[in-house]
Amino acid sequence: MKLQPYLFFDGRAEEAAAFYRDALGAEVEMMIHFGDGPEPSDPERVPAGSDGKVMHMSLRIGGTVLLGSDGDCLGRANFDGFSLALEVATDADAERVFAALADGGKVGQELITTFFTSRFGTVSDRFGVPWMLTVAQAQPNG
User: Fold this and answer.
1) What does the pLDDT look like over 2-36, one tens digit per residue?
2) Topology, domain 6-69
3) What is the CA radius of gyration of the chain?
4) pLDDT tens digit sequence for 43-72
5) Is this structure's pTM higher than 0.85?
6) CA distances from 55 to 6, 12, 50, 68, 129 (A)
7) Does domain 84-135 have CATH number 3.30.720.110?
8) What residue ranges in 36-115 does DSSP mark as E strands?
9) Coil, strand or helix: which one is 84?
10) Distance (Å, rounded) from C-alpha 131 to C-alpha 87?
11) CA distance 134 to 142
12) From residue 16, how far is each of 11, 37, 129 by CA, in Å?
């Protein structure tokens, strides 16, 4: 069994893929556009002129695959009720990645030191995707 987040960017998926490539080092494993299919897009589901929009994409971020699409291409992406939890190796990584995700986005909790990690922060990126960032901590022997 495998669980993978699937995000609908509602018209901004290709822009999101480029942003995550630059901000997080994401690798685009696959990107299929609506116009790539053997049949025309369903006009009741996908607005006319959306052939260049993303039907499905797969991004590798570290050891995780994030899936996405432009969905209905209506420009009303809504990312409520969850956060993507991102764990980085060092405080320097946390500072760099947090700043990249915050560029054009909205900071919820600035990076702080807590009892459970040397850096913790929350941010919604420029697409409205919420992130929780932490630094990996050494686990006690047990």
Assistant:
1) 999 999 999 999 999 999 999 999 999 999 998 88
2) 3.30.720
3) 17
4) 666 677 788 899 999 999 999 999 999 988
5) yes
6) 12, 11, 10, 8, 19
7) yes
8) 54-61, 64-69, 84-88, 106-112
9) strand
10) 10
11) 22
12) 10, 22, 10
